[in-house]
Amino acid sequence: MAQFLYHATDAAGKFVKGSLEAKDRDSLVDKLHEMGYFPIRIGSSADEKNAARKRGGFSLFKRKASAHLVVGFTQELSDMLEAGLALDRSLSILAELERNEAFKQIIIEVHKDIQAGETFADALDKHPQLFSEIYINTVRAGEAGGSLEIVLSRLKKFIEDARKLKEDIKSALIYPALLVLVGGSAVALMLLVFIPKFSVILEDMGGAMPLPTQILLNISGTLTRFWPVILILIVASVFAFKATQKTEKGRVKFDRFKLRIPLFGPILKKAAVSRFSRTLGALMQGGLPILESLKIAVRTVGNNYMTRMITPAIDGVRRGRGLTEPLKETSVFPPLAIHMLAVGEETGKLDETLIRLSDKYDRDVGTAVKRLLSLLEPAIILVMAVIVGFVVISLMLAVFSLNDMPM
Known about the structure:
By secondary structure, the protein is mostly helical.
């Protein structure tokens, strides 16, 4: 048995807190339900002590509000609304319980705006750094349809799924990035530091050097003599690229190029289709009309070329042509996605079909990324091994050739 601290509300909406012994968290939830309480937050005594220690300790930096806090906030708010608490009271409780000072201040401001007569969506709209356009418009649709608690529950899953996919891809890229960094640093160190010193010795000895050694010394000499020029060219290229990315034409061209890269292009396309489908499905499930949902979903594709190609589909939907045919004409949606959307429209379950389509492409993207990384890691190791091997063999040949040089 473990000691748990809980925060809950009773049937009248009164906030209560205390501690109980239970086998695990699920057992504690059952106990609280038997007592007529609706749990809001549950934690162990050790967790609470650690949190209190952190709050009371000295810190050089203020804790900033981050996007992951929105997931917990959304779930807890949804639970309280389902338990029958008013939105005003729920926000007041969440502000009291929040440990992150920056996020707590945001909840307080939202609460004050609601008390001043603003809608929940309008109050959230003042904090775009945390609440996205999708989030705000979904909440607005939920308020209009009187199903805010259901919409919040769906939003929580939507945010979690999107964040999980992003984190999985980031985690998978850490090892290849580390390989490139370490291997590249080692090669740069040899070319810029060790080989120039070795070349001085060889030049003093005189005599002809093997071809691989000559190539290596020429590369090292070029880098050593012209590294300022090379650095300037790299920096200039970066600035030129950033300048082109500030123009719509430049962004569209680059995004189109990314879709054509072998192996990477199909993954990027599926990820974009997944984002579009999940956003559109979530907004439609929240009660927002398809035309308004489509206008928002188009802005979340994440690829400027695909956004430009999909945007004309909005006009097709406005003219009553449905969604499938206009999207088919864009030529950027995979055939399978078009067929699934057609079935969704025919059965009247387009929103559910969009979510299923997004789930499928999320799985495909995850599998493709793992496959790509399984090929990328040995490829990087092989390239680094070839480069290092060439350097070592070139130096060894030079050493062996010393016997043939005049002393």
